[in-house]
């Protein structure tokens, strides 16, 4: 799960940089509810795992084609993971009316990135601005927070796949490798 969110994060961070938007406060998308109410500052994106459902095998990989590891191990079921996604944005000009526009850029980029990475294996649910609800407390005072759902499907293989640790000197979400599709990371170099 962490690797999947890190891949989405790398894509989002690169797209925001390319569009001239400020970097995420934490440098990457965070994973876990513990980060939602943490004292921080916008722009910030947090993925909160909410649950999973299992079904018959029909997902092989994000591209629709099985990877070599999946082919060797065989897919036995589909794991459908549900996330609550918190996007917290604020305008650079301190105008509260512009906060909605910046927050919209964040959640729309998450949707674009997820759709690119998990082609045909993702879905999205409606969202709300948490501080726009009637009687809502002003937990978010700087900017606006938009919360929506992302559902991703992944294969469950017949055997556990090898555990791979990232090198300790690599900062998650930062890479110097880009290709024409906007994907980043090792192995994404143009042929």
In brief:
It is built from 3 helices and 5 strands. With about 190 residues, the protein is of the alpha+beta class. A 5-stranded mixed β-sheet has the order 1-2-3-5-4.
Write a concise keyword list for the protein shown above:
5 strands; disordered C terminus; 191 residues; alpha+beta
Explain the layout of strands and helices.
Blueprint: H1 2-18, E1 30-31, E2 44-55, H2 68-73, E3 75-89, H3 96-117, E4 122-129, E5 144-157
Parallel strand pairs: 1-2
Antiparallel strand pairs: 2-3, 3-5, 4-5
Helix pairs in contact: 1-3
Report on this model:
The chain is an alpha+beta fold and 191 residues long. Helix content is 24%, strand content 27%. It has three helices and five strands, in the order αββαβαββ. It has helices at 2-18, 68-73, 96-117; strands at 30-31, 44-55, 75-89, 122-129, 144-157. Strands 1-2-3-5-4 form a five-stranded mixed beta sheet. The two termini are 28 Å apart. The model is unreliable at 167-191 (pLDDT under 50).
């Amino acid at each position: 799960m962490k690797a999947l969110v890190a891949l989405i994060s790398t894509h989002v961070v690169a797209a925001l940089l390319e569009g001239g938007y400020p970097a995420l406060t934490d440098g990457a998308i965070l994973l876990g509810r513990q980060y939602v109410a943490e004292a921080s500052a916008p722009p910030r994106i947090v993925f909160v795992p909410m649950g999973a459902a299992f079904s018959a095998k029909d997902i092989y990989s994000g591209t629709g084609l099985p990877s070599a590891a999946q082919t060797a191990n065989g897919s036995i079921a589909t794991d459908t993971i549900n996330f609550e996604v918190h996007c917290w944005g604020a305008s650079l000009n301190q105008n509260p009316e512009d906060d909605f526009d910046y927050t919209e850029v964040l959640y729309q980029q998450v949707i674009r990135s997820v759709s690119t990475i998990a082609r045909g294996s993702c879905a999205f649910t409606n969202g709300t601005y948490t501080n726009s609800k009637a009687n809502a407390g002003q937990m978010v005072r700087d900017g606006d927070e938009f919360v929506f759902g992302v559902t991703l499907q992944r294969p469950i293989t017949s055997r556990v796949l090898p555990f791979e640790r990232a090198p300790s000197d690599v900062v998650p979400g930062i890479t110097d490798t880009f290709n024409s599709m906007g994907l980043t990371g090792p192995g994404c170099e143009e042929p």
